[in-house]
Automatic annotation (TrEMBL):
The name this protein goes by in its record: Butyrobetaine (gamma), 2-oxoglutarate dioxygenase (gamma-butyrobetaine hydroxylase) 1
One Pfam assignment: TauD
GO annotation, cellular component aspect: mitochondrion
Limits of the TauD/TfdA-like domain: 62-304
Entry-linked SUPFAM superfamilies: Clavaminate synthase-like (SSF51197)
Keywords attached to this entry: Carnitine biosynthesis, Dioxygenase, Iron, Metal-binding, Oxidoreductase
Source organism superkingdom: Eukaryota
Cofactor(s) needed for function: Fe(2+); L-ascorbate
Length: 325
């Protein structure tokens, strides 16, 4: 047994040419070696890239809002599920403004955008965003008109509509995987063609945004890392050679058709006090049309964060709870 312990906790001493000495722990060297297995393990430990893909059968992970605010284990479980599944439901928040900011304080700070630190999803006269109407919102990601779209979105239900207003979400990474399997050419098109997005108006301040994005972003290994799709802000400009126009629209239609299959869409209806938190780089979300009354106007408060801040807090909580990283 003593011999085994000595081998498990061995150290390596190196005397360098200038005669100074370095001592390395064996476990540290093993963890930081250049083997494919060690590198993969380190990547997963630091970035948690493994995802749980889902369809309409998903039971959305649920947590208690107050527990998340005050208990590190609950907060860690929330962020781990948010990273792996892409969506977590929080119950029990006060049905009043300010709760998304409180939740963001648990992580770090909010992302300021042209719609403010937080924004109110309500019917608005002369609306500068389709979200501020009672009409249907088709599945989309938020803010592809920004070169660096927010990574995480919070939506807090303060008041729900009399009829309608159900939320819809789809796992965009899973749908991209399905597209690659069913229509490889469409997948190649959407991962290579850059599309123009635009957004113009006045809110927190006046803005005139323009960006070029691939609908599906992949990394150097070909793994899907981000979805950029919002038909409401996709520009009328299509900066492509004419022979690539029809293939692009065919590919986009194939992807949208997969997204909208009933077996792929999760539908839920928020009630006052509910907060949904989700990965804006991965999920496409939408909303069915609704009817409000003057005494019962639908009201959601929203906010954004970036994945850098979320992952930072996740690592800190993991170290505090488990004492390791």
């Amino acid at each position: 047994m003593k011999e085994w312990l000595r081998k498990k906790h061995f150290k390596v001493s190196i005397v360098w040419p200038d005669q100074h000495m370095s001592v390395f722990d064996g476990d540290w060297l093993k963890k930081h070696c250049f083997s494919a297995a060690a590198r993969q393990a380190m990547q997963e430990e630091l970035f948690l890239n493994e995802r749980y893909y889902w369809d309409s059968k998903l039971r959305i992970p649920t947590a208690d809002y107050q527990e998340v605010l005050h208990d590190d284990k609950a907060a860690l479980a929330w962020l781990l599920a948010l990273r792996r599944v892409g969506i977590v439901y929080l119950k029990g928040a006060p049905a009043e403004e300010g709760q998304v900011a409180r939740l963001a304080d648990r992580i770090g700070y909010l992302r300021l955008t042209f719609y403010g630190h937080t924004w109110q999803v309500q019917d608005k006269a002369m609306a500068n965003n389709v979200a501020y109407t009672s009409g249907k919102l088709s599945l989309h990601t938020d803010y592809p008109a920004l070169h660096f779209a927010p990574g995480v979105q919070f939506l807090h239900c303060i008041n729900q509509a009399v009829n309608g207003g159900e939320s819809e979400v789809v796992d965009g990474f899973h749908m991209a995987e399905k597209l690659q399997r069913e229509d490889p050419e469409a997948f190649r098109t959407l991962t290579s063609v850059r599309v123009d997005f635009t957004d113009t108006g006045t809110d927190y301040c006046d803005f005139m945004l323009q960006s070029k994005k691939r609908i599906i972003d992949v990394d150097a290994e070909g793994r899907v890392v981000r979805i950029n799709y919002n038909n409401a802000t996709r520009d009328s400009v299509l900066d492509l050679p004419v022979h690539r126009v029809q293939p692009f629209y065919r590919a986009l239609k194939a992807y949208v058709n997969i997204m909208n299959r009933l077996e792929n869409v999760v539908t839920y209806k928020m009630e006052p006090g509910d907060i949904v938190t989700f990965d804006n780089w991965r999920l496409l979300h939408g909303r069915r049309s609704y009817i409000s009354r003057p005494d019962r106007l639908r009201h959601l408060e929203g906010a954004y964060l970036d994945w850098d801040e979320v992952m930072s807090r996740l690592r800190i909580l993991r170290k505090a709870v488990h004492g390791e990283l």
